[in-house]
Structure formats: structure tokens, C-alpha cells
Specification:
Blueprint: H1 2-11, H2 30-41, H3 43-48, H4 57-66, H5 75-83, H6 90-112, H7 118-131, H8 134-138, H9 147-159, H10 166-182, H11 184-207, H12 217-238, H13 247-257, H14 260-268, H15 287-292, H16 297-300, H17 303-321, H18 323-338, H19 351-361, H20 366-371, H21 381-408, H22 412-435, H23 440-444, H24 449-461
Length: 469
Amino acid sequence: MLGLAGLAGQVSMAGGGGIKPWQGTVSETESAAVLLAIPILLSIAIWNGFPIVFYDSGAYLLQGLGGVFIEERSPVYSLFLPLTLAPVSLWLTVGAQAAMTAFVMAETARVLAPGLKLLSFLAVVAALTVVTGLPWYVAQIEPDAFTAILILSFYLLLFHSRALSRGRRIALFLVAALAIACHPSHMVIAAGLILAAAIYRLVVRRAGAGWPVAHPALPVLSLVLGLVTIVTANFGYTREVFLSRAGPVFVFARLVQDGIVMRLLEDTCPQSHYRLCAYKDELPRTADQWLWDKYTPFKELKGFAGTTQESERIIFDSLRRYPLMHLRTALADTWRQFSLFRTGDQLEPQEWALYPMFEDFVPRQVEAYMSARQQRGAFDFDVWNDIHVPVGWASLVLLAALLAWALATGRHRQTVFLGFVLVALLGNAAVCGALSNPHDRYQSRVVWIAPFALALSAARLRRPLESGT
């Protein structure tokens, strides 16, 4: 955390002149903006008394600190834990996540709303910690903290890289590469955003002057670095070269939930000789039941290691037989995911599952972990979501309306920023909804970008209309 804060200080444009930080803009007081935003972003964890944990947090501890390869969990995020000194304190891990988030948010504000005062920026960050799920993900031992900063970093690298100092470009490039490597969904989101930028380049060539130019070189390189990092980490654990063994299994689980697997089995068994034919009448109804229930055909077929090849075969066979069914269910799951963003998905007390991992790998932190509000069942997410859900929907509606207005009034830079945010939110919903299965936490982790974009747009609109804005 201190290293990243120091980096923010090194790349800041804070000039001399004796300006008092609270009187200056984010551009003039960037180091202060980053440093002061960190405790705000960690406020939920501070109130909780310990970093927020999820069921998967134990698997990351086991893989990162115990050296046990787990097919369905990112080895890179697991290794991020010891790199951020998690055995000393998990506060250092979430502190690093908060520092990167604060840095990317400050960079975005500096570029898009250069006149925004430091106190106004901190007020925006504080408001987002109250009205969105932002602090619940920043302070969570999960790679979901990286999804939103990947999106914002890509925007800055695509459309503002030439206006950024070398230090800022390097920092954003490294943040983006790390974010891509930390979760399989992130590499698909990154590839989708690069494709969208390529399509945008083709369109604006015919649209005439005034539109911002997209420069995809750094995002492409960050994607390559992220993929190399994943392959390297996988090789370090298994001595085999691959990107992911779990991807087909998660897609397959979604097809179980949507009824596509059952239809294929009914239409082809026993001639198809799928091993799953023997379990045709035992298929669970949901993806989560298929993957995580104690007694399922998935477990009997040896889980991720034992079902990957047949999962791939069934996916491709069903695509060939039922392409329209695939399209219909993928679109429905994308929309369902886009509309699901309640905070607190499965953030209940979890010591029954996680206590052994904490006791084995971070024993000095067990007492603080067990005494945290989360483990005492003190979270009331109904109260939080009475705020978060209406704010999320209002922000999405206003984002679409402001995008239409910016396009109609020739504010090209604002159009591109708002359009990029909307495309990214839809892309996240498509990746998580159609390639896995819809859960509130997948969209909740990124929906805070919408009100953040609105706040920066409002600050920018206070300035006179400039050419190409």
C-alpha cells in the first residue's frame, strides 16, 4: 500500500507555490487525493473490525499461502496475498487494493474533471462508499476489487494515454495487467473492451473530425502481460501450460440451469455415450447446486478435474444442435445479470468454512477475524440495499440519458466516456451472466462506476463547452 501511494506521489503533478491541499484541485494535490481516499474506501472494513471475507477467500489462502493448486480459483490473486504480506496482516492486502482503486479514481477525475477540487473529490468517494457497494469490494479478500479499476484503467489508456505522464501510463498499465490476471472474467472483459475500441476506431474514421482517437496498444500489451502472468502462475503450480481448466465447467453449469444440458441428454442418450447420461434424472436445477452441493453428479464425476473434457464436448454439441436456444438464454442471462446488483451477496458469517484456513495460514489474525461484525452476523444488507439498488437504477437511467444528450449536442469526449462505461457494464453482465450464471455480486462490483461517471460529468459540465468535448 505504501509503495503504491508513493508511486502516486511520484507521478502526481502537485506543484509548489505553497498551495494548501484542501484548496487545490485533484490535479494539483494528487498524492493527497490518493492517500486521503484510502481510509474512506476502507471505512466498511474498519467499521467491521476486519477485512471483508467471502467463501472463496479460504481457497485463495489455501492456494496462495498453502501452495495447493485449485482449478477454479485464480492463482495470480492467490499469489497476490503473500506479495502484499497477507500472513502478516490481511489489512495490507486490502490496503493495497484500496491504494490502487484510489489511484485509478484520482487519475480518472484528474483527466475528466481537471477543475475538481480535492475536497469535492473526497466527497464523491465518501458518497460512493455510502450509496454503492464500492467499499464492500475494495476491502474484500477477493479479486472482485479489480474489475472496476480494470475498466477505468482501460479507458484512460485507450483515450488519454498521450496526455498522461510516463509514470502514470506505467502505473495504469501495471494495474490493468494485474487486474486481468486476477480473475478469468477479467481477461474476457478486457478482450471485449479492446474489440469495442477497434470497432469504434473503424466507425469514427467515417464520422469526421472531433472524435477522440482510441490508442489500443497499451491495453493490448496489458492483456498479453496478464495472460502470460496467468500461464506462468499455472505452470508454477502444475508444470503444465494452460490458461484455465475451470472455464468450460462454469459455462456448463449455466447450461444446466437453463435446461440446455437436460434437453441434449434427453435427445441423445444413450447413443451419445456421455458419462452424464447415467445421471440424467439426477441433474440439479441450478448452477450453484451443480457446482457446490455436497452430493451431485459433478462431485461423483471428480469435479473440475474430471468433467472438463465432457463439459467442452456437451457445450459444443449443444451449440450445434440448439443455437437459437443458446442465444435466447445467453441474452436473458445477460439482462438478468445487468439488473442484479444488490450488495452483500453471500457475505454472511462464514467461519464454519473459513476458520480452518485462518487457523492454518494466518493464526495471529484469527481472534480479530472471529470478533468482526461479519462473523457475529451484524450486517443488515436490507438497509444498505434500500439505498444501493435505487441509486444503481437511477444512475443507469441518468447515464443513458446523459449519453444521448452528449451525443446530440456534439460533446464527443463525454459521449465516448459515458458510452465506454455503459458498454463495460453491459460487457461485465454478458461475461458473468452468459459464461457463468447471474449473481448480484458480479454486477454490484462494477455498478458504482455509473454514479462516479455522472459525478465527473457534472463537474466537467460546469466548464464552458470546448471543441471536441
